[in-house]
Recover the amino acids of this structure.
């Protein structure tokens, strides 16, 4: 099987079939990451399209020494951040304080809250309160298991800045989810 | 030895090697730190991955089918280089303005009337063919193409990885070419009362200027600054929105 970089070389030579193979290979991971960042299937689908379109336009710039997976993820993350920004500008930040307060004061038992749908909703609300970069860094570290240095490559940030972004995300999540776990901060 | 910091607890939770052997050793024997880590884990363990809906077995094929059409459009567009497009666009506007503002066969048209032409029932008339000319539509079509070209430059710039010295010669040259058209379109849009278009062109100009006046090779810091400027202003999104509006208005105008 040809490597990603070999396919990129073919694409640069005008071979669309090679690009189709790259699309086939990377569509699902990008869709998954985009969905986890945007929490919306239609948005994730748009991001997949936009990502490959941008990749195609910029394929000449891809550095063959780098990982195509990291590169395409970086583009997908940029698309996701653009979309989150535009959505926030368009709709304004959703106010989840009421959601969280309502969930926290729910009469359901703590176990049910923690393990039930309410917890998922609380997590989603808390995630939505993160900035685009924080959310992305956290998703990549926590859900995708990506090492910090690779997240830095995807976000275009230095290791220290990447770590701080993850730390901030964890701190915010912990503060938001505190009422549901009973743990001390 | 001091207790772990909150940041070190996070590193420990994710088993990051950076924590260091001495800190790991402390954590293994310190009850307070163990309890604190357990507290963190009790929260993070509950942040489980969102269940991603299955997009279907044929998802890759569907993505490719849609993408394929768009790529074909890209290729067609690439047959005309961006330079040709910009020159053609500029020529059309200049020729149009010259035709409207200087017409030997009829009195000089007041600029206020030009601006309100689309709102009146008396359209401007092409002096040679005597057929009505939808001046705003011509402007919008040309500006739509300009926005598209600008968006491509900005997207390519924001996708570059800040790493050592980055070559931005292509973006720089494109920005330089787009700059001349940008000024002309902004003035024309203002004359025509297309305020949204003029405002966006106004926001675009300093960014194009910065790119056009940058060195061919920029440091990671300089590149990041440029990317941040583009992202902070939300220019790519704005270009997309206004371009869509412009194209829609231009199309509507054709149907009228």
């Amino acid at each position: 099987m040809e490597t990603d970089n070999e396919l990129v070389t073919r694409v640069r030579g005008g071979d669309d079939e090679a690009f189709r193979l790259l699309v086939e290979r990377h569509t699902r991971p990008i869709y998954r990451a985009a969905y986890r960042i945007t929490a919306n299937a239609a948005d994730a689908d748009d991001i997949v399209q936009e990502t490959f379109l941008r990749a195609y336009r910029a394929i000449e710039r891809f550095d063959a020494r780098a990982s195509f997976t990291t590169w395409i993820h970086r583009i997908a993350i940029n698309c996701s951040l653009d979309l989150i920004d535009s959505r926030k500008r368009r709709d304004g930040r959703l106010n989840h304080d009421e959601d969280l307060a309502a969930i926290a004061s729910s009469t359901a038992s703590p176990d049910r809250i923690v393990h039930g749908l309410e917890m998922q909703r609380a997590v989603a609300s808390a995630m939505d309160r993160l900035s685009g970069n924080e959310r992305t860094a956290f998703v990549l570290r926590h859900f995708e298991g990506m090492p910090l240095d690779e997240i830095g490559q995807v976000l275009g940030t230095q290791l220290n800045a990447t770590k701080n972004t993850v730390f901030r995300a964890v701190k915010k999540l912990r503060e938001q989810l505190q009422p549901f776990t009973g743990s001390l901060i | 030895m001091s207790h772990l910091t909150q940041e070190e607890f996070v590193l420990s939770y994710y088993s990051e090697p950076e924590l260091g052997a001495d800190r790991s050793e402390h954590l293994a024997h310190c009850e307070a730190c163990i309890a604190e880590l357990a507290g963190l884990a009790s929260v993070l363990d509950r942040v489980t991955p969102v269940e991603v809906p299955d997009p279907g077995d044929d998802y890759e094929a569907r993505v490719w089918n849609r993408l394929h059409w768009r790529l074909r459009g890209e290729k067609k567009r690439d047959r005309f280089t961006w330079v040709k497009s910009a020159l053609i666009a500029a020529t059309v506007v200049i020729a149009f303005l010259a035709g409207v503002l200087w017409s030997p066969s009829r009195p000089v048209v007041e600029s206020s009337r030009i601006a309100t032409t689309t709102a009146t029932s008396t359209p401007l008339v092409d002096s040679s063919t005597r057929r009505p000319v939808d001046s705003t539509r011509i402007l919008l079509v040309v500006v739509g193409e300009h926005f598209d070209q600008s968006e491509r430059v900005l997207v390519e710039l924001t996708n570059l990885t800040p790493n050592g010295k980055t070559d931005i010669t292509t973006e720089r040259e494109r920005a330089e070419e787009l700059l001349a058209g940008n000024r002309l379109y902004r003035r024309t849009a203002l004359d025509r009362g297309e305020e949204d278009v003029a405002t966006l062109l106004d926001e675009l100009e300093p960014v194009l200027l910065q790119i056009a006046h940058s060195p061919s090779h920029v440091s990671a810091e300089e590149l990041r600054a440029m990317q941040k400027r583009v992202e902070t202003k939300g220019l790519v999104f704005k270009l997309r929105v206004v371009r869509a509006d412009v194209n829609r208005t231009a199309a509507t105008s054709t149907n009228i």
